[in-house]
Task: inverse folding
Protein backbone atom coordinates (compact mmCIF):
# COMPACT_ATOMS: atom_id res chain seq x y z
CA UNK A 1 0.00 0.00 0.00
CA UNK A 2 1.26 3.37 -0.97
CA UNK A 3 1.39 6.49 1.18
CA UNK A 4 0.13 9.53 -0.68
CA UNK A 5 1.19 13.07 0.15
CA UNK A 6 -1.69 15.32 -0.79
CA UNK A 7 -1.27 19.10 -1.21
CA UNK A 8 -3.75 21.20 0.69
CA UNK A 9 -4.36 24.73 1.96
CA UNK A 10 -5.52 25.81 5.43
CA UNK A 11 -9.19 26.25 6.31
CA UNK A 12 -10.28 29.10 8.55
CA UNK A 13 -11.85 28.36 11.89
CA UNK A 14 -10.27 25.04 12.88
CA UNK A 15 -9.56 26.22 16.42
CA UNK A 16 -10.92 23.67 18.92
CA UNK A 17 -13.55 25.15 21.25
CA UNK A 18 -14.67 24.14 24.74
CA UNK A 19 -14.59 20.52 23.66
CA UNK A 20 -12.75 19.89 20.40
CA UNK A 21 -13.59 21.00 16.87
CA UNK A 22 -17.38 21.10 16.44
CA UNK A 23 -18.85 22.11 13.11
CA UNK A 24 -21.68 21.37 10.75
CA UNK A 25 -21.41 18.00 9.01
CA UNK A 26 -21.41 19.82 5.67
CA UNK A 27 -18.19 21.63 6.61
CA UNK A 28 -16.50 18.40 7.67
CA UNK A 29 -17.50 16.78 4.38
CA UNK A 30 -15.69 19.37 2.26
CA UNK A 31 -12.66 17.94 0.50
CA UNK A 32 -9.57 18.01 2.75
CA UNK A 33 -11.35 19.55 5.78
CA UNK A 34 -11.25 16.49 8.01
CA UNK A 35 -7.88 15.42 6.60
CA UNK A 36 -6.31 18.81 7.41
CA UNK A 37 -7.46 18.67 11.02
CA UNK A 38 -6.34 15.09 11.59
CA UNK A 39 -2.95 15.69 9.98
CA UNK A 40 -2.61 18.80 12.17
CA UNK A 41 -3.13 16.65 15.26
CA UNK A 42 -0.24 14.46 14.16
CA UNK A 43 1.90 17.43 13.10
CA UNK A 44 1.49 18.99 16.53
CA UNK A 45 2.21 15.85 18.56
CA UNK A 46 5.77 14.83 19.20
CA UNK A 47 6.47 11.13 19.52
CA UNK A 48 3.31 9.37 18.38
CA UNK A 49 5.16 7.20 15.83
CA UNK A 50 5.17 3.58 16.93
CA UNK A 51 2.49 4.27 19.54
CA UNK A 52 -1.10 3.15 20.19
CA UNK A 53 -4.12 5.38 19.59
CA UNK A 54 -7.73 4.81 20.60
CA UNK A 55 -10.41 5.70 18.04
CA UNK A 56 -14.18 5.69 18.43
CA UNK A 57 -17.22 7.89 18.34
CA UNK A 58 -20.86 8.29 19.24
CA UNK A 59 -22.11 6.71 16.02
CA UNK A 60 -23.55 9.88 14.59
CA UNK A 61 -23.84 10.56 10.87
CA UNK A 62 -20.36 10.68 9.25
CA UNK A 63 -18.80 8.70 12.14
CA UNK A 64 -17.95 5.69 9.98
CA UNK A 65 -16.65 7.68 7.00
CA UNK A 66 -14.49 9.86 9.25
CA UNK A 67 -13.04 6.79 10.97
CA UNK A 68 -11.94 5.32 7.62
CA UNK A 69 -10.06 8.53 6.83
CA UNK A 70 -8.56 8.77 10.31
CA UNK A 71 -7.29 5.19 10.14
CA UNK A 72 -5.60 5.79 6.79
CA UNK A 73 -3.96 9.04 7.96
CA UNK A 74 -2.85 7.40 11.22
CA UNK A 75 -1.28 4.51 9.28
CA UNK A 76 0.47 6.88 6.89
CA UNK A 77 1.88 8.89 9.79
CA UNK A 78 3.43 5.91 11.53
CA UNK A 79 0.96 4.99 14.26
CA UNK A 80 1.68 1.39 15.27
CA UNK A 81 -1.70 0.29 16.59
CA UNK A 82 -5.26 1.58 16.81
CA UNK A 83 -7.72 0.30 19.40
CA UNK A 84 -11.06 0.75 17.69
CA UNK A 85 -14.50 0.45 19.25
CA UNK A 86 -16.36 -2.15 17.19
CA UNK A 87 -18.70 -0.49 14.73
CA UNK A 88 -16.75 2.72 15.31
CA UNK A 89 -18.56 3.13 18.64
CA UNK A 90 -17.14 4.24 21.95
CA UNK A 91 -18.86 6.53 24.39
CA UNK A 92 -16.67 9.43 25.46
CA UNK A 93 -16.25 8.03 29.00
CA UNK A 94 -15.48 4.56 27.64
CA UNK A 95 -12.87 6.05 25.28
CA UNK A 96 -11.27 7.82 28.23
CA UNK A 97 -11.10 4.56 30.18
CA UNK A 98 -9.76 2.55 27.24
CA UNK A 99 -6.93 5.08 26.76
CA UNK A 100 -6.00 4.77 30.43
CA UNK A 101 -6.41 1.03 30.74
CA UNK A 102 -4.36 0.19 27.67
CA UNK A 103 -1.71 2.86 28.24
CA UNK A 104 -2.44 4.42 24.86
CA UNK A 105 -0.61 7.50 23.66
CA UNK A 106 -3.94 9.27 23.15
CA UNK A 107 -7.27 8.99 21.41
CA UNK A 108 -9.38 10.56 18.71
CA UNK A 109 -12.98 10.80 19.86
CA UNK A 110 -15.64 11.63 17.29
CA UNK A 111 -18.67 13.39 18.64
CA UNK A 112 -20.53 16.66 18.76
CA UNK A 113 -21.89 15.56 22.11
CA UNK A 114 -25.46 16.73 22.69
CA UNK A 115 -25.68 18.61 19.37
CA UNK A 116 -28.07 17.18 16.77
CA UNK A 117 -26.82 14.71 14.16
CA UNK A 118 -27.66 13.77 10.57
CA UNK A 119 -26.48 15.33 7.29
CA UNK A 120 -27.66 18.78 8.39
CA UNK A 121 -26.51 18.33 11.98
CA UNK A 122 -23.17 18.64 13.70
CA UNK A 123 -20.00 16.60 13.85
CA UNK A 124 -16.98 16.93 16.09
CA UNK A 125 -13.46 15.68 16.74
CA UNK A 126 -11.62 15.80 20.00
CA UNK A 127 -8.08 14.74 20.76
CA UNK A 128 -7.60 13.15 24.19
CA UNK A 129 -4.19 12.78 25.77
CA UNK A 130 -2.63 9.82 27.57
CA UNK A 131 -4.40 10.46 30.88
CA UNK A 132 -7.65 9.84 28.97
CA UNK A 133 -8.78 13.44 29.20
CA UNK A 134 -9.41 16.15 26.63
CA UNK A 135 -6.23 17.80 25.42
CA UNK A 136 -5.30 20.84 27.50
CA UNK A 137 -5.28 24.27 25.90
CA UNK A 138 -1.56 24.19 25.11
CA UNK A 139 -2.17 21.09 22.95
CA UNK A 140 -5.34 22.36 21.25
CA UNK A 141 -3.61 25.64 20.47
CA UNK A 142 -0.68 23.75 18.96
CA UNK A 143 -3.11 21.77 16.79
CA UNK A 144 -4.79 24.99 15.74
CA UNK A 145 -1.42 26.55 14.85
CA UNK A 146 -0.74 23.57 12.55
CA UNK A 147 -4.15 23.92 10.86
CA UNK A 148 -3.19 27.48 9.93
CA UNK A 149 -0.07 26.57 8.06
CA UNK A 150 -0.76 23.07 6.75
CA UNK A 151 0.41 22.43 3.17
CA UNK A 152 0.06 18.65 2.86
CA UNK A 153 -1.34 15.59 4.54
CA UNK A 154 -0.27 11.97 4.38
CA UNK A 155 -2.79 9.24 3.77
CA UNK A 156 -2.56 5.56 2.94
CA UNK A 157 -3.95 4.65 -0.46
CA UNK A 158 -5.97 1.66 0.75
CA UNK A 159 -9.50 0.30 0.57
CA UNK A 160 -11.84 0.88 3.50
CA UNK A 161 -11.62 -1.62 6.36
CA UNK A 162 -14.52 -3.49 7.93
CA UNK A 163 -15.43 -1.77 11.20
CA UNK A 164 -17.82 -4.44 12.42
CA UNK A 165 -15.79 -7.60 12.87
CA UNK A 166 -13.98 -9.00 15.88
CA UNK A 167 -10.67 -9.92 14.33
CA UNK A 168 -7.67 -7.62 14.31
CA UNK A 169 -6.91 -5.97 10.95
CA UNK A 170 -3.85 -4.59 9.26
CA UNK A 171 -3.63 -1.31 7.42
CA UNK A 172 -0.14 -0.88 5.97
CA UNK A 173 2.19 -1.31 8.95
CA UNK A 174 -0.53 -0.46 11.47
CA UNK A 175 -2.68 -3.00 13.30
CA UNK A 176 -6.28 -2.33 14.26
CA UNK A 177 -7.56 -4.16 17.34
CA UNK A 178 -11.32 -4.37 17.66
CA UNK A 179 -12.71 -3.69 21.13
CA UNK A 180 -16.12 -4.50 22.53
CA UNK A 181 -17.23 -0.92 23.29
CA UNK A 182 -18.99 -1.93 26.52
CA UNK A 183 -16.97 -4.59 28.36
CA UNK A 184 -13.99 -2.59 29.72
CA UNK A 185 -16.33 0.15 30.86
CA UNK A 186 -18.73 -2.26 32.54
CA UNK A 187 -15.88 -3.91 34.48
CA UNK A 188 -14.82 -0.50 35.74
CA UNK A 189 -18.33 0.33 36.95
CA UNK A 190 -18.43 -2.98 38.83
CA UNK A 191 -15.39 -1.87 40.84
CA UNK A 192 -16.96 1.47 41.82
CA UNK A 193 -20.54 0.62 42.74
CA UNK A 194 -22.28 -1.94 44.90
CA UNK A 195 -23.97 -3.97 42.18
CA UNK A 196 -25.46 -6.42 44.73
CA UNK A 197 -27.22 -3.60 46.56
CA UNK A 198 -28.54 -2.08 43.34
CA UNK A 199 -29.68 -5.53 42.17
CA UNK A 200 -31.57 -5.90 45.45
CA UNK A 201 -33.16 -2.50 44.89
CA UNK A 202 -34.45 -3.55 41.48
CA UNK A 203 -35.53 -6.92 42.84
CA UNK A 204 -37.70 -5.08 45.38
CA UNK A 205 -39.70 -3.58 42.49
CA UNK A 206 -37.93 -0.22 42.25
CA UNK A 207 -38.90 1.24 38.87
CA UNK A 208 -36.62 3.25 36.59
CA UNK A 209 -36.64 4.72 33.10
CA UNK A 210 -33.34 5.53 31.40
CA UNK A 211 -33.60 7.40 28.11
CA UNK A 212 -30.57 6.70 25.94
CA UNK A 213 -31.93 9.18 23.37
CA UNK A 214 -31.07 6.87 20.42
CA UNK A 215 -27.45 7.69 21.14
CA UNK A 216 -24.35 5.82 22.19
CA UNK A 217 -25.25 4.79 25.76
CA UNK A 218 -28.07 2.42 24.75
CA UNK A 219 -25.85 -0.68 24.57
CA UNK A 220 -24.01 0.29 27.77
CA UNK A 221 -27.22 0.88 29.73
CA UNK A 222 -28.83 -2.30 28.46
CA UNK A 223 -25.79 -4.39 29.40
CA UNK A 224 -25.39 -2.80 32.83
CA UNK A 225 -28.84 -1.70 34.03
CA UNK A 226 -31.01 -4.37 32.44
CA UNK A 227 -28.32 -7.05 32.21
CA UNK A 228 -25.98 -6.97 35.20
CA UNK A 229 -28.33 -5.13 37.58
CA UNK A 230 -31.48 -6.99 36.63
CA UNK A 231 -33.81 -4.06 35.90
CA UNK A 232 -36.77 -5.21 33.79
CA UNK A 233 -36.48 -5.20 29.99
CA UNK A 234 -37.80 -1.91 28.69
CA UNK A 235 -36.18 0.11 31.48
CA UNK A 236 -33.82 1.55 28.86
CA UNK A 237 -35.70 3.62 26.29
CA UNK A 238 -34.44 4.54 22.80
CA UNK A 239 -31.61 2.05 23.26
CA UNK A 240 -30.44 1.69 19.66
CA UNK A 241 -27.81 4.25 18.59
CA UNK A 242 -28.97 5.93 15.36
CA UNK A 243 -26.89 8.17 13.07
CA UNK A 244 -29.45 10.98 13.38
CA UNK A 245 -30.58 10.14 16.95
CA UNK A 246 -34.02 9.43 15.53
CA UNK A 247 -34.30 13.06 14.46
CA UNK A 248 -34.03 14.21 18.07
CA UNK A 249 -31.62 16.52 19.78
CA UNK A 250 -29.65 14.18 22.09
CA UNK A 251 -29.39 16.73 24.88
CA UNK A 252 -30.62 15.39 28.22
CA UNK A 253 -32.28 18.56 29.46
CA UNK A 254 -35.87 19.45 30.22
CA UNK A 255 -36.47 20.65 26.67
CA UNK A 256 -35.11 17.74 24.68
CA UNK A 257 -35.87 14.97 27.18
CA UNK A 258 -39.37 16.38 27.54
CA UNK A 259 -41.27 13.11 27.35
CA UNK A 260 -39.18 11.63 30.18
CA UNK A 261 -39.74 14.78 32.21
CA UNK A 262 -43.50 14.64 31.64
CA UNK A 263 -43.57 10.98 32.64
CA UNK A 264 -41.62 11.76 35.81
CA UNK A 265 -44.03 14.52 36.76
CA UNK A 266 -47.09 12.32 36.17
CA UNK A 267 -49.05 9.99 38.44
CA UNK A 268 -47.56 6.98 36.63
CA UNK A 269 -43.97 8.12 37.23
CA UNK A 270 -41.42 5.47 38.12
CA UNK A 271 -39.26 6.17 41.16
CA UNK A 272 -36.25 7.24 39.14
CA UNK A 273 -35.67 8.69 35.69
CA UNK A 274 -32.40 9.45 33.91
CA UNK A 275 -31.02 10.22 30.48
CA UNK A 276 -27.70 10.68 28.76
CA UNK A 277 -26.53 12.59 25.71
CA UNK A 278 -25.12 11.80 22.26
CA UNK A 279 -21.71 10.62 23.44
CA UNK A 280 -22.68 9.49 26.93
CA UNK A 281 -20.85 12.00 29.08
CA UNK A 282 -23.84 14.07 30.25
CA UNK A 283 -26.62 13.03 32.58
CA UNK A 284 -30.12 14.05 33.56
CA UNK A 285 -31.49 12.95 36.92
CA UNK A 286 -35.20 13.19 37.76
CA UNK A 287 -37.03 11.59 40.64
CA UNK A 288 -40.77 11.18 40.80
CA UNK A 289 -41.94 14.80 40.88
CA UNK A 290 -38.41 16.18 41.31
CA UNK A 291 -35.92 17.36 38.69
CA UNK A 292 -32.44 17.49 40.21
CA UNK A 293 -30.37 20.35 38.78
CA UNK A 294 -26.89 19.25 37.70
CA UNK A 295 -25.36 21.56 40.29
CA UNK A 296 -27.46 20.02 43.07
CA UNK A 297 -26.76 16.54 41.76
CA UNK A 298 -23.01 17.18 42.02
CA UNK A 299 -23.39 18.39 45.60
CA UNK A 300 -25.62 15.46 46.60
CA UNK A 301 -23.29 12.86 45.09
CA UNK A 302 -20.37 14.39 46.97
CA UNK A 303 -22.33 14.43 50.22
CA UNK A 304 -23.17 10.72 49.80
CA UNK A 305 -19.83 9.51 48.45
CA UNK A 306 -19.02 7.66 51.69
CA UNK A 307 -21.93 5.29 50.94
CA UNK A 308 -20.47 4.16 47.61
CA UNK A 309 -17.66 1.56 47.52
CA UNK A 310 -15.41 3.44 45.06
CA UNK A 311 -15.42 6.56 47.26
CA UNK A 312 -15.67 5.14 50.76
CA UNK A 313 -12.16 6.29 51.56
CA UNK A 314 -13.35 9.89 51.28
CA UNK A 315 -12.90 12.70 48.82
CA UNK A 316 -9.58 14.46 48.34
CA UNK A 317 -11.41 17.51 47.03
CA UNK A 318 -14.19 18.66 44.73
CA UNK A 319 -13.97 20.77 41.59
CA UNK A 320 -16.70 22.59 39.69
CA UNK A 321 -16.66 24.86 36.69
CA UNK A 322 -17.05 28.54 37.52
CA UNK A 323 -20.67 28.95 36.34
CA UNK A 324 -21.80 25.84 38.26
CA UNK A 325 -23.72 26.72 41.42
CA UNK A 326 -21.82 26.79 44.67
CA UNK A 327 -23.90 24.03 46.25
CA UNK A 328 -20.85 21.76 46.01
CA UNK A 329 -18.70 24.32 47.84
CA UNK A 330 -20.94 23.97 50.89
CA UNK A 331 -20.52 20.20 50.89
CA UNK A 332 -16.75 20.56 50.53
CA UNK A 333 -16.70 22.93 53.47
CA UNK A 334 -18.65 20.50 55.61
CA UNK A 335 -16.38 17.62 54.58
CA UNK A 336 -13.32 19.75 55.26
CA UNK A 337 -11.92 19.29 51.76
CA UNK A 338 -10.95 21.92 49.15
CA UNK A 339 -13.30 23.00 46.38
CA UNK A 340 -11.72 24.26 43.15
CA UNK A 341 -13.38 26.64 40.71
CA UNK A 342 -12.17 26.10 37.15
CA UNK A 343 -13.14 27.52 33.75
CA UNK A 344 -15.86 25.75 31.75
CA UNK A 345 -14.47 22.68 29.97
CA UNK A 346 -13.71 19.27 31.39
CA UNK A 347 -10.09 19.63 30.31
CA UNK A 348 -9.51 21.99 33.23
CA UNK A 349 -10.16 19.20 35.74
CA UNK A 350 -7.45 16.96 34.30
CA UNK A 351 -4.44 18.29 36.20
CA UNK A 352 -6.32 18.39 39.51
CA UNK A 353 -7.44 14.78 39.06
CA UNK A 354 -3.98 13.63 37.98
CA UNK A 355 -2.43 15.30 41.02
CA UNK A 356 -4.92 13.56 43.33
CA UNK A 357 -6.22 16.92 44.54
CA UNK A 358 -9.86 16.24 43.67
CA UNK A 359 -11.99 13.11 43.48
CA UNK A 360 -15.34 14.31 42.08
CA UNK A 361 -15.92 17.09 39.54
CA UNK A 362 -19.02 18.55 37.96
CA UNK A 363 -20.56 21.20 35.81
CA UNK A 364 -23.89 22.93 35.47
CA UNK A 365 -24.00 21.67 31.89
CA UNK A 366 -25.12 18.23 33.08
CA UNK A 367 -21.68 16.73 33.51
CA UNK A 368 -20.45 14.88 36.57
CA UNK A 369 -17.53 12.53 36.94
CA UNK A 370 -14.67 11.41 39.10
CA UNK A 371 -11.07 10.28 39.16
CA UNK A 372 -12.08 6.91 37.61
CA UNK A 373 -11.52 8.47 34.16
CA UNK A 374 -10.73 11.92 32.79
CA UNK A 375 -14.07 12.74 31.16
CA UNK A 376 -17.46 13.35 32.64
CA UNK A 377 -19.56 10.24 32.71
CA UNK A 378 -23.33 10.10 32.28
CA UNK A 379 -23.96 6.47 33.15
CA UNK A 380 -21.58 6.69 36.12
CA UNK A 381 -23.76 9.48 37.57
CA UNK A 382 -26.87 7.35 37.07
CA UNK A 383 -25.26 4.34 38.78
CA UNK A 384 -24.04 6.57 41.60
CA UNK A 385 -27.62 7.75 42.17
CA UNK A 386 -28.92 4.17 42.04
CA UNK A 387 -26.28 3.13 44.57
CA UNK A 388 -27.21 5.90 46.97
CA UNK A 389 -30.93 5.21 46.54
CA UNK A 390 -30.24 1.54 47.25
CA UNK A 391 -28.45 2.56 50.46
CA UNK A 392 -30.84 5.23 51.66
CA UNK A 393 -34.14 3.69 50.50
CA UNK A 394 -35.61 7.20 50.36
CA UNK A 395 -37.19 8.91 47.35
CA UNK A 396 -35.15 11.31 45.21
CA UNK A 397 -37.48 14.06 46.42
CA UNK A 398 -36.73 13.31 50.06
CA UNK A 399 -33.00 13.14 49.46
CA UNK A 400 -32.95 16.49 47.66
CA UNK A 401 -35.10 18.21 50.29
CA UNK A 402 -32.95 16.80 53.07
CA UNK A 403 -29.87 18.15 51.30
CA UNK A 404 -31.37 21.63 51.03
CA UNK A 405 -32.34 21.56 54.70
CA UNK A 406 -28.79 20.70 55.67
CA UNK A 407 -26.95 23.00 53.28
CA UNK A 408 -29.41 25.63 52.08
CA UNK A 409 -30.77 25.77 48.55
CA UNK A 410 -29.01 27.27 45.54
CA UNK A 411 -31.80 28.28 43.16
CA UNK A 412 -30.19 28.10 39.74
CA UNK A 413 -31.19 28.72 36.13
CA UNK A 414 -29.33 29.21 32.86
CA UNK A 415 -30.71 31.43 30.12
CA UNK A 416 -29.28 30.71 26.67
CA UNK A 417 -29.56 33.10 23.74
CA UNK A 418 -28.69 30.83 20.85
CA UNK A 419 -27.52 31.66 17.35
CA UNK A 420 -27.25 35.38 17.99
CA UNK A 421 -25.04 37.60 15.90
CA UNK A 422 -21.43 36.77 16.79
CA UNK A 423 -20.22 40.40 16.67
CA UNK A 424 -23.08 41.58 18.88
CA UNK A 425 -22.27 38.82 21.37
CA UNK A 426 -18.60 39.76 21.49
CA UNK A 427 -19.49 43.42 21.94
CA UNK A 428 -21.84 42.59 24.80
CA UNK A 429 -19.07 40.79 26.66
CA UNK A 430 -16.45 43.42 25.78
CA UNK A 431 -18.69 46.16 27.11
CA UNK A 432 -19.25 44.24 30.34
CA UNK A 433 -15.48 43.96 30.79
CA UNK A 434 -15.15 47.72 30.52
CA UNK A 435 -17.86 48.51 33.10
CA UNK A 436 -16.85 45.89 35.68
CA UNK A 437 -14.75 48.17 37.78
CA UNK A 438 -17.67 50.53 38.40
CA UNK A 439 -20.17 47.82 39.41
CA UNK A 440 -19.33 47.06 43.08
CA UNK A 441 -21.49 49.14 45.40
CA UNK A 442 -24.32 49.49 42.88
CA UNK A 443 -27.67 48.29 44.14
CA UNK A 444 -30.71 47.15 42.18
CA UNK A 445 -33.95 45.76 43.61
CA UNK A 446 -32.26 45.16 46.96
CA UNK A 447 -29.34 43.29 45.39
CA UNK A 448 -26.05 45.05 46.15
CA UNK A 449 -23.04 44.16 44.02
CA UNK A 450 -19.98 43.30 46.09
CA UNK A 451 -17.64 41.95 43.43
CA UNK A 452 -17.41 41.89 39.63
CA UNK A 453 -14.61 40.42 37.53
CA UNK A 454 -13.63 38.66 34.33
CA UNK A 455 -12.80 35.18 35.59
CA UNK A 456 -9.19 34.07 35.12
CA UNK A 457 -7.82 30.74 36.28
CA UNK A 458 -4.30 29.81 37.22
CA UNK A 459 -3.84 26.06 37.10
CA UNK A 460 -2.34 25.12 40.48
CA UNK A 461 -0.30 22.32 38.93
CA UNK A 462 1.31 23.74 35.81
CA UNK A 463 0.80 27.45 36.46
CA UNK A 464 -0.88 28.02 33.10
CA UNK A 465 -3.26 30.98 33.08
CA UNK A 466 -6.62 31.02 31.25
CA UNK A 467 -8.16 34.49 31.04
CA UNK A 468 -11.54 35.81 29.92
CA UNK A 469 -13.48 32.81 31.14
CA UNK A 470 -16.70 34.63 31.96
CA UNK A 471 -18.00 37.72 33.73
CA UNK A 472 -18.89 37.11 37.39
CA UNK A 473 -21.09 39.48 39.36
CA UNK A 474 -21.53 38.66 43.03
CA UNK A 475 -24.16 40.18 45.34
CA UNK A 476 -24.11 40.72 49.08
CA UNK A 477 -26.80 38.06 49.64
CA UNK A 478 -24.58 35.41 47.98
CA UNK A 479 -26.51 35.63 44.72
CA UNK A 480 -24.55 35.60 41.49
CA UNK A 481 -24.88 36.37 37.80
CA UNK A 482 -22.42 35.00 35.25
CA UNK A 483 -22.21 35.92 31.57
CA UNK A 484 -20.17 33.94 29.07
CA UNK A 485 -20.19 32.86 25.46
CA UNK A 486 -20.54 29.17 24.72
CA UNK A 487 -17.59 27.42 23.14
CA UNK A 488 -19.59 24.55 21.67
CA UNK A 489 -22.15 26.13 19.34
CA UNK A 490 -21.81 25.75 15.58
CA UNK A 491 -23.92 28.67 14.31
CA UNK A 492 -23.51 32.33 15.29
CA UNK A 493 -22.84 32.75 19.00
CA UNK A 494 -24.62 31.54 22.11
CA UNK A 495 -24.76 33.84 25.12
CA UNK A 496 -25.22 32.05 28.41
CA UNK A 497 -26.53 33.96 31.42
CA UNK A 498 -26.33 31.97 34.66
CA UNK A 499 -28.49 33.04 37.59
CA UNK A 500 -27.96 31.77 41.12
CA UNK A 501 -29.66 32.75 44.37
CA UNK A 502 -28.83 31.20 47.72
CA UNK A 503 -31.64 30.60 50.18
CA UNK A 504 -30.70 29.25 53.62
CA UNK A 505 -34.24 29.28 55.02
CA UNK A 506 -35.96 25.87 54.54
CA UNK A 507 -39.38 27.52 54.75
CA UNK A 508 -38.58 29.21 51.42
CA UNK A 509 -37.15 26.20 49.58
CA UNK A 510 -40.44 25.33 47.90
CA UNK A 511 -40.51 28.41 45.65
CA UNK A 512 -40.46 27.78 41.89
CA UNK A 513 -36.88 28.10 40.55
CA UNK A 514 -37.75 30.58 37.85
CA UNK A 515 -39.71 32.78 40.22
CA UNK A 516 -36.81 32.65 42.65
CA UNK A 517 -34.32 34.01 40.10
CA UNK A 518 -36.69 36.34 38.23
CA UNK A 519 -35.27 39.50 39.86
CA UNK A 520 -31.76 38.40 39.04
CA UNK A 521 -32.83 37.84 35.43
CA UNK A 522 -34.02 41.44 35.21
CA UNK A 523 -30.81 42.72 36.75
CA UNK A 524 -28.76 40.63 34.31
CA UNK A 525 -30.70 42.08 31.41
CA UNK A 526 -30.10 45.63 32.62
CA UNK A 527 -26.41 45.22 33.37
CA UNK A 528 -25.71 43.25 30.21
CA UNK A 529 -28.13 45.15 27.94
CA UNK A 530 -29.06 41.67 26.82
CA UNK A 531 -32.33 42.38 25.00
CA UNK A 532 -30.94 45.47 23.35
CA UNK A 533 -27.78 43.83 22.11
CA UNK A 534 -29.10 40.39 21.18
CA UNK A 535 -32.35 41.66 19.68
CA UNK A 536 -34.15 38.93 21.64
CA UNK A 537 -36.95 39.61 24.08
CA UNK A 538 -36.41 36.27 25.83
CA UNK A 539 -33.85 33.48 26.00
CA UNK A 540 -34.19 30.66 23.45
CA UNK A 541 -33.63 27.99 26.08
CA UNK A 542 -34.03 28.13 29.84
CA UNK A 543 -32.63 25.24 31.84
C1 LIG B 1 -18.62 20.46 26.74
C2 LIG B 1 -17.53 20.54 27.76
C3 LIG B 1 -18.08 20.95 29.09
C4 LIG B 1 -18.86 22.23 28.97
C5 LIG B 1 -19.94 22.09 27.91
C6 LIG B 1 -20.65 23.38 27.63
O1 LIG B 1 -19.49 19.43 27.07
O2 LIG B 1 -16.86 19.30 27.90
O3 LIG B 1 -17.01 21.09 29.98
O4 LIG B 1 -19.45 22.57 30.20
O5 LIG B 1 -19.34 21.68 26.70
O6 LIG B 1 -19.73 24.30 27.14
P1 LIG B 1 -20.19 25.69 26.57
O7 LIG B 1 -20.92 26.36 27.70
O8 LIG B 1 -18.90 26.37 26.20
O9 LIG B 1 -21.11 25.45 25.41
P2 LIG B 1 -20.03 18.42 25.96
O10 LIG B 1 -20.94 17.49 26.68
O11 LIG B 1 -20.74 19.30 24.96
O12 LIG B 1 -18.81 17.78 25.40
Result:
Amino acid sequence: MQTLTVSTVPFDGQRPGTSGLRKKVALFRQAHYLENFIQSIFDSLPGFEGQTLVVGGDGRFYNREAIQTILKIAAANGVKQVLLGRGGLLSTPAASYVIRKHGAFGGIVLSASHNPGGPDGDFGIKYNVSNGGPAPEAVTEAIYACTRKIERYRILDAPDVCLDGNAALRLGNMTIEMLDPVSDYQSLMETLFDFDKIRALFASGFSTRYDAMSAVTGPYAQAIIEGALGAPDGTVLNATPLPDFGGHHPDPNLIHARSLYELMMSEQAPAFGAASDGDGDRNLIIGKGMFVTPSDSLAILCAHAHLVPGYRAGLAGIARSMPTSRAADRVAERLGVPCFETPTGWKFFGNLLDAGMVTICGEESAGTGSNHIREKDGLWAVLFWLNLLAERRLSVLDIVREHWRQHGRHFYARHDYEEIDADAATELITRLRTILVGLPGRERNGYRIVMADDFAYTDPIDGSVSRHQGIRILFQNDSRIVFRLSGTGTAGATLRVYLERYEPNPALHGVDIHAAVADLGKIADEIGEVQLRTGRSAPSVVT
The pocket of 1,6-di-O-phosphono-alpha-D-glucopyranose is lined by residues 18-19, 113-114, 281-282, 321, 344-346, 363, 365, 367, 486-488, 496 (CB under 6 Å). The CA atoms of residues 106 and 130 lie 5 Å apart.
